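Module 6 notes. Inverse folding takes a fixed backbone as the condition and produces residue identities as the prediction. Think of it as a translation problem where the source language is geometry and the target language is the twenty amino acids. Below is one complete input and output pair. Work through it position by position during the lab.
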Protein backbone atom coordinates (compact mmCIF):
# COMPACT_ATOMS: atom_id res chain seq x y z
CA UNK A 1 0.00 0.00 0.00
CA UNK A 2 1.43 3.35 -1.01
CA UNK A 3 1.43 6.14 1.53
CA UNK A 4 -1.12 8.78 0.60
CA UNK A 5 -3.70 11.04 2.12
CA UNK A 6 -6.29 8.32 1.42
CA UNK A 7 -5.00 6.54 4.52
CA UNK A 8 -6.46 9.33 6.63
CA UNK A 9 -9.94 9.29 5.09
CA UNK A 10 -12.80 8.07 7.27
CA UNK A 11 -15.52 7.64 4.65
CA UNK A 12 -18.01 4.97 5.72
CA UNK A 13 -16.80 4.96 9.31
CA UNK A 14 -18.92 5.74 12.37
CA UNK A 15 -17.36 7.47 15.38
CA UNK A 16 -18.72 7.77 18.92
CA UNK A 17 -17.24 10.57 21.02
CA UNK A 18 -18.14 10.87 24.70
CA UNK A 19 -18.18 14.41 26.05
CA UNK A 20 -18.32 15.56 22.46
CA UNK A 21 -20.28 18.78 22.84
CA UNK A 22 -17.49 21.16 23.88
CA UNK A 23 -13.74 21.58 24.19
CA UNK A 24 -11.51 18.92 22.69
CA UNK A 25 -14.45 16.56 22.32
CA UNK A 26 -16.28 18.87 19.94
CA UNK A 27 -13.10 19.73 18.02
CA UNK A 28 -12.39 16.02 17.52
CA UNK A 29 -15.97 15.20 16.51
CA UNK A 30 -15.94 18.01 13.95
CA UNK A 31 -12.57 16.85 12.59
CA UNK A 32 -13.69 13.23 12.23
CA UNK A 33 -16.79 14.35 10.36
CA UNK A 34 -14.70 16.54 8.07
CA UNK A 35 -12.56 13.47 7.36
CA UNK A 36 -15.67 11.59 6.26
CA UNK A 37 -17.05 9.86 9.34
CA UNK A 38 -20.60 9.90 10.64
CA UNK A 39 -20.49 10.87 14.30
CA UNK A 40 -22.33 10.42 17.56
CA UNK A 41 -21.65 12.96 20.29
CA UNK A 42 -22.75 12.46 23.87
CA UNK A 43 -23.37 14.64 26.89
CA UNK A 44 -25.37 14.34 30.08
CA UNK A 45 -27.47 17.18 28.64
CA UNK A 46 -29.64 15.97 25.74
CA UNK A 47 -30.21 19.47 24.34
CA UNK A 48 -26.48 20.22 24.24
CA UNK A 49 -25.79 16.90 22.53
CA UNK A 50 -28.44 17.48 19.89
CA UNK A 51 -27.30 21.07 19.31
CA UNK A 52 -23.69 19.99 18.81
CA UNK A 53 -24.71 17.18 16.47
CA UNK A 54 -26.84 19.53 14.40
CA UNK A 55 -23.98 22.02 14.06
CA UNK A 56 -21.56 19.29 12.96
CA UNK A 57 -24.01 17.87 10.42
CA UNK A 58 -24.73 21.32 9.01
CA UNK A 59 -21.08 22.29 8.61
CA UNK A 60 -19.77 18.96 7.27
CA UNK A 61 -22.67 17.34 5.46
CA UNK A 62 -22.15 14.15 7.45
CA UNK A 63 -24.76 12.39 9.56
CA UNK A 64 -24.50 13.29 13.22
CA UNK A 65 -26.46 12.12 16.25
CA UNK A 66 -26.59 13.68 19.71
CA UNK A 67 -27.31 11.38 22.65
CA UNK A 68 -27.72 12.00 26.37
CA UNK A 69 -25.76 9.66 28.61
CA UNK A 70 -24.03 9.69 31.97
CA UNK A 71 -20.93 7.68 31.13
CA UNK A 72 -20.40 6.64 34.74
CA UNK A 73 -23.63 4.60 34.57
CA UNK A 74 -23.42 1.21 32.85
CA UNK A 75 -27.10 1.06 31.92
CA UNK A 76 -26.97 4.44 30.21
CA UNK A 77 -23.84 3.46 28.31
CA UNK A 78 -25.44 0.26 27.04
CA UNK A 79 -28.44 2.29 25.86
CA UNK A 80 -26.11 4.83 24.21
CA UNK A 81 -24.29 2.12 22.26
CA UNK A 82 -27.54 0.39 21.28
CA UNK A 83 -28.97 3.67 19.98
CA UNK A 84 -25.79 4.37 18.02
CA UNK A 85 -25.82 0.95 16.35
CA UNK A 86 -29.53 1.25 15.63
CA UNK A 87 -28.99 4.63 13.95
CA UNK A 88 -25.84 3.89 11.96
CA UNK A 89 -25.50 0.10 11.91
CA UNK A 90 -21.99 0.00 13.36
CA UNK A 91 -19.42 1.72 15.55
CA UNK A 92 -15.90 1.87 14.13
CA UNK A 93 -14.28 4.47 16.35
CA UNK A 94 -14.76 5.08 20.07
CA UNK A 95 -13.16 8.12 21.65
CA UNK A 96 -13.37 8.04 25.44
CA UNK A 97 -13.08 11.77 25.94
CA UNK A 98 -15.38 12.70 28.83
CA UNK A 99 -13.23 13.82 31.74
CA UNK A 100 -13.06 15.94 34.85
CA UNK A 101 -10.40 17.40 37.14
CA UNK A 102 -10.61 18.35 40.81
CA UNK A 103 -7.54 20.08 42.23
CA UNK A 104 -6.91 19.56 45.95
CA UNK A 105 -4.07 18.42 48.23
CA UNK A 106 -4.44 14.76 49.16
CA UNK A 107 -5.29 15.48 52.80
CA UNK A 108 -8.12 17.77 51.68
CA UNK A 109 -9.50 15.40 49.08
CA UNK A 110 -12.96 14.24 50.10
CA UNK A 111 -14.09 10.79 48.97
CA UNK A 112 -16.92 12.13 46.84
CA UNK A 113 -14.54 14.26 44.75
CA UNK A 114 -12.04 11.42 44.45
CA UNK A 115 -14.73 8.99 43.31
CA UNK A 116 -16.15 11.50 40.82
CA UNK A 117 -12.77 11.89 39.10
CA UNK A 118 -12.03 8.15 39.07
CA UNK A 119 -15.51 7.23 37.86
CA UNK A 120 -15.47 9.79 35.06
CA UNK A 121 -11.88 9.43 33.88
CA UNK A 122 -11.22 5.71 34.38
CA UNK A 123 -14.38 3.73 35.07
CA UNK A 124 -16.31 5.36 32.21
CA UNK A 125 -13.76 4.39 29.51
CA UNK A 126 -13.81 0.81 30.80
CA UNK A 127 -17.61 0.75 30.68
CA UNK A 128 -17.73 2.30 27.20
CA UNK A 129 -15.08 -0.02 25.80
CA UNK A 130 -16.87 -3.02 27.25
CA UNK A 131 -20.13 -1.84 25.70
CA UNK A 132 -18.74 -1.53 22.15
CA UNK A 133 -16.74 -4.77 22.32
CA UNK A 134 -19.45 -7.00 20.84
CA UNK A 135 -20.05 -4.71 17.88
CA UNK A 136 -16.38 -4.13 17.09
CA UNK A 137 -15.51 -7.80 17.46
CA UNK A 138 -18.32 -8.85 15.12
CA UNK A 139 -17.06 -6.29 12.58
CA UNK A 140 -13.49 -7.44 13.17
CA UNK A 141 -12.56 -3.80 13.11
CA UNK A 142 -12.28 -1.01 15.63
CA UNK A 143 -10.34 2.00 16.81
CA UNK A 144 -10.58 2.78 20.52
CA UNK A 145 -8.88 6.01 21.57
CA UNK A 146 -8.66 6.80 25.26
CA UNK A 147 -8.06 10.44 26.11
CA UNK A 148 -5.42 10.27 28.81
CA UNK A 149 -3.01 13.12 29.54
CA UNK A 150 0.65 13.91 29.95
CA UNK A 151 -0.32 13.74 33.64
CA UNK A 152 -0.82 10.02 33.18
CA UNK A 153 2.98 9.77 33.06
CA UNK A 154 4.20 12.73 35.11
CA UNK A 155 2.76 14.40 38.20
CA UNK A 156 1.83 17.83 39.50
CA UNK A 157 0.83 18.79 43.05
CA UNK A 158 -2.90 18.77 43.88
CA UNK A 159 -3.72 16.43 40.97
CA UNK A 160 -3.74 13.18 42.94
CA UNK A 161 -7.06 11.92 41.61
CA UNK A 162 -6.51 13.18 38.08
CA UNK A 163 -2.97 11.80 37.70
CA UNK A 164 -4.05 8.47 39.18
CA UNK A 165 -7.01 8.17 36.82
CA UNK A 166 -5.05 9.12 33.71
CA UNK A 167 -2.16 6.81 34.60
CA UNK A 168 -4.65 4.01 35.13
CA UNK A 169 -6.21 4.78 31.75
CA UNK A 170 -2.85 4.27 30.03
CA UNK A 171 -2.58 0.85 31.67
CA UNK A 172 -6.17 -0.03 30.73
CA UNK A 173 -5.30 0.95 27.16
CA UNK A 174 -2.44 -1.55 27.10
CA UNK A 175 -4.56 -4.38 28.48
CA UNK A 176 -7.36 -3.77 25.99
CA UNK A 177 -4.84 -3.59 23.15
CA UNK A 178 -3.53 -7.05 24.02
CA UNK A 179 -6.96 -8.57 24.50
CA UNK A 180 -8.50 -7.14 21.32
CA UNK A 181 -5.60 -7.36 18.85
CA UNK A 182 -6.86 -10.73 17.50
CA UNK A 183 -10.07 -8.98 16.41
CA UNK A 184 -8.31 -6.23 14.43
CA UNK A 185 -9.25 -3.67 17.09
CA UNK A 186 -6.53 -1.21 18.04
CA UNK A 187 -6.56 0.60 21.36
CA UNK A 188 -4.36 3.63 21.97
CA UNK A 189 -4.16 6.59 24.33
CA UNK A 190 -3.87 10.21 23.30
CA UNK A 191 -2.12 12.25 25.98
CA UNK A 192 -2.53 16.01 25.55
CA UNK A 193 -0.50 18.46 27.52
CA UNK A 194 -1.63 21.99 28.38
CA UNK A 195 -4.40 22.83 25.90
CA UNK A 196 -6.41 26.04 26.20
CA UNK A 197 -9.81 24.49 26.91
CA UNK A 198 -12.56 25.24 29.41
CA UNK A 199 -11.14 22.55 31.73
CA UNK A 200 -7.94 24.61 32.10
CA UNK A 201 -9.51 28.06 32.42
CA UNK A 202 -8.92 28.12 36.18
CA UNK A 203 -5.18 27.63 35.61
CA UNK A 204 -4.88 30.11 32.75
CA UNK A 205 -6.70 32.78 34.79
CA UNK A 206 -4.28 32.40 37.70
CA UNK A 207 -1.17 34.48 36.80
CA UNK A 208 1.21 32.48 39.00
CA UNK A 209 -0.09 29.09 37.83
CA UNK A 210 -0.19 30.22 34.21
CA UNK A 211 3.44 31.39 34.38
CA UNK A 212 4.47 28.02 35.84
CA UNK A 213 2.85 26.25 32.89
CA UNK A 214 4.31 28.57 30.26
CA UNK A 215 7.78 28.16 31.77
CA UNK A 216 7.53 24.38 31.52
CA UNK A 217 6.17 24.16 27.96
CA UNK A 218 9.12 24.03 25.58
CA UNK A 219 7.16 25.87 22.89
CA UNK A 220 6.38 28.62 25.41
CA UNK A 221 2.61 28.71 24.99
CA UNK A 222 -0.60 26.80 25.62
CA UNK A 223 -1.73 24.50 22.85
CA UNK A 224 -4.75 25.32 20.73
CA UNK A 225 -7.59 22.77 20.66
CA UNK A 226 -7.26 22.41 16.88
CA UNK A 227 -3.63 21.33 17.30
CA UNK A 228 -4.90 17.93 18.43
CA UNK A 229 -6.68 17.28 15.11
CA UNK A 230 -3.75 15.71 13.26
CA UNK A 231 -3.16 13.20 16.04
CA UNK A 232 -6.80 12.16 16.37
CA UNK A 233 -7.32 11.68 12.63
CA UNK A 234 -4.16 9.57 12.49
CA UNK A 235 -5.23 7.40 15.43
CA UNK A 236 -8.77 6.96 14.09
CA UNK A 237 -7.76 6.06 10.54
CA UNK A 238 -6.01 3.33 8.56
CA UNK A 239 -2.81 5.34 8.87
CA UNK A 240 -2.34 3.95 12.41
CA UNK A 241 -3.16 0.32 11.57
CA UNK A 242 0.07 -1.05 13.12
CA UNK A 243 -0.10 0.99 16.32
CA UNK A 244 -1.82 -0.44 19.38
CA UNK A 245 -1.23 -0.19 23.12
CA UNK A 246 0.63 3.07 22.55
CA UNK A 247 0.42 6.48 24.16
CA UNK A 248 0.88 9.53 21.94
CA UNK A 249 1.88 12.68 23.82
CA UNK A 250 1.03 16.10 22.36
CA UNK A 251 2.27 18.50 25.01
CA UNK A 252 4.37 21.26 23.44
CA UNK A 253 7.52 19.59 24.75
CA UNK A 254 6.70 19.55 28.49
CA UNK A 255 7.65 15.89 29.02
CA UNK A 256 10.82 16.26 26.94
CA UNK A 257 12.47 18.00 29.91
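Target side of the pair, the amino acids:
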Amino acid sequence: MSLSLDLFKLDGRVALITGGTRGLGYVMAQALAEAGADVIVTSRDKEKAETAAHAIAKSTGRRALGLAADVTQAEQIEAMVAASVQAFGRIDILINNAGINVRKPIEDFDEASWDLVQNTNLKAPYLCARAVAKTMKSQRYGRVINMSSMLGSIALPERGAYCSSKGGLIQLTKVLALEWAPYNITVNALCPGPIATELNTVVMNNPEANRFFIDNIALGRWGKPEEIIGAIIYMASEASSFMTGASMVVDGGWTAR
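Reference fact for the lab report: DSSP finds eight helices and seven strands in the chain.
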